[in-house]
Design goal:
One of its GO terms (molecular function) is L-aspartate:2-oxoglutarate aminotransferase activity. The protein contains 16 helices and 13 strands. By secondary structure, the chain is of the alpha/beta class. Helix 8 links the parallel strand 7 and strand 8. It is globular.
Length: 386
Amino acid sequence: MTSVFSNVQTAPSIEVFALTEQFKKDSNPNKVNLTVGAYRTEECKPWVLPVVKTVEAQLAADDTLDKEYLPVTGLPDFCASAVAVCFGEGHPVLLSQRADGIQALGGTGALRLGYDFLRCILGRDTIYVSKPTWGNHKGIAQQCGYPNVREYRYWLASGRCLDEQGMLEDLTAAPEGSVIVLHGVAHNPTGCDPTPEQWEKILAVIKQRNLFPLIDLAYQGFASGDLDRDGRVPRLFADHNMEFFVAQSFSKNFGLYNERVGNLAIVTQSAEITGRVKSQVRNIIRKTWSNPPSHGARVVATVLRNPALAAEWRENIKRMAERIHITDQIGMFSYTGLSAAQAEYLRTNYAIYIMSDGRINMSGLTSKTVDRVAQAMHEAVTKCSA
């Protein structure tokens, strides 16, 4: 009997996870994994934040908690706290209730909700992502049915810096109403962020061309150790009375990678409009995952609503950020400029695993491995042509 699945082809592997599996199977005692986007200690181990352990123990001992469904839009305390972290306590968009939040399955889920709403409810058909960008930015757009998924120039390889002119030219040429996906801080994969002055220029073009910004804020606090500094971009757009979405992730700054804790922050011209938008996103959720999980959201909400715990959390993220030192880039990732062939050279000859686009996770380096990695990279550059 012929299977109905006979014509289904094996899908391409997801590089970051495929390389991680290859790394695990590698028997080289000196192997180094610089691929996956998760924090590592000096011992190259995952780190559960102390404040998270404290709160999880409290939640486990709380007999008043149950396993009932959360509201479709999420745990209210979490959503309110997440938006407050994004914009800062007392920001006018919060006081006017122009901003609100919706719990999502990680930052990826928040992006999906934003993409879906803009495509299905507003009918937007063109979306721009940076070149290069996180792979899922394009993939989610295609999955959501955007007929036009385009790129704006971002990385200037010759100068190892932002292509300011190219980016502004491409945004200026974008059709009115296009969705523009922006990295709020710690651009992935380059680690190269616009300066405050460049952000002002970017905002001016978006405003002039009537483009819709969707800010991916995956690394607030984790990038510099300062929540306010890392939250400058959404606050800048809010200060200019823009309407926009922010996809927030608490995977990095809380270390809650497998709890899938995210939030879609919505900012419109009025509380009434924000409420209407939220109602439409609620119905999208109902047709996808129906209700969000509670544990990770409760951890985040409990920390953020307790001043002492929130202060401890800020120290935790500062500790993580301070272990990552990059002179001209920011955040977890560094764009080395190594080619796919050079990356393969490192894996084959040194069991050093990096992404084929040259991106590395800086927290995967330790004082014991950094010299060997640097020497191997030098050899890859000198012996292996790009």
